[in-house]
């Protein structure tokens, strides 16, 4: 499989030919994406059944931070590209109860080839509730689909 992967990376298989890093549109540092959420029981953790203790879950907080990052760079991607999360380094700092709104913000801090690094934050109506860094990789979707098909076939 390793030799097969290297062949794809070198562009020897036209169906899976890798795109060059420099053919991607430039993503400016400081580019920011936002996502808003009203915390509901569907996005909250349940502590031993006490409805009064339901708060935004950490997995949901991270997912919406990733969503904000993805949306931040989508305008800079072509129709065959999207991004995949590759690193999450997040701290959940405070609880947000059901019924309160949260704003998730992701700001581009670094771009290296197809890897994009973000500073991410989550703020509810009262305070900063989460922060950290997140990395995404810009993927050529047809190439990804072909690689996934090859992986399933082996």
Supply database-style keywords:
single chain; 154 residues; alpha+beta; Thiol Ester Dehydrase, Chain A; five-stranded antiparallel sheet; 7 strands; globular
Explain how this protein is built:
With 154 residues, the protein is α+β, with helices and mostly antiparallel strands. The chain contains three helices and seven strands. The strands form two sheets. A five-stranded antiparallel sheet has the order 1-5-6-7-4. A two-stranded antiparallel ribbon has the order 2-3. Strand 6 and strand 7 form a beta hairpin. The longest helix is centred in the middle third of the chain and has 16 residues. It is globular and about 50 Å long.
Explain the layout of strands and helices:
Blueprint: H1 2-9, E1 32-38, E2 44-45, E3 55-56, H2 58-73, E4 81-92, E5 101-112, E6 115-124, E7 128-140, H3 141-153
Antiparallel strand pairs: 1-5, 2-3, 4-7, 5-6, 6-7
């Amino acid at each position: 499989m390793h030799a097969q992967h290297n062949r794809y990376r070198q562009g020897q298989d036209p169906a899976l030919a890798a795109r060059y890093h420099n053919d991607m549109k430039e993503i400016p540092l400081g580019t920011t994406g936002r996502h808003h959420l009203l915390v509901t029981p569907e996005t909250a953790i349940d502590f031993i059944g006490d409805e009064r203790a339901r708060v935004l879950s950490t997995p949901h907080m991270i997912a919406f931070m990733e969503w904000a990052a993805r949306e931040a760079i989508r305008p800079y991607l072509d129709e065959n590209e999207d991004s995949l999360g590759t690193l999450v380094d997040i701290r959940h700092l405070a609880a947000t109860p059901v019924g309160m709104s949260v704003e998730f913000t992701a700001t581009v801090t670094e771009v290296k080839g197809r890897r994009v690094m973000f500073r991410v934050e989550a703020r509810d109506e009262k305070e900063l509730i989460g922060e950290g860094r997140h990395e995404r990789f810009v993927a050529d979707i047809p190439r990804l689909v072909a690689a996934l098909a090859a992986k399933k076939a082996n």
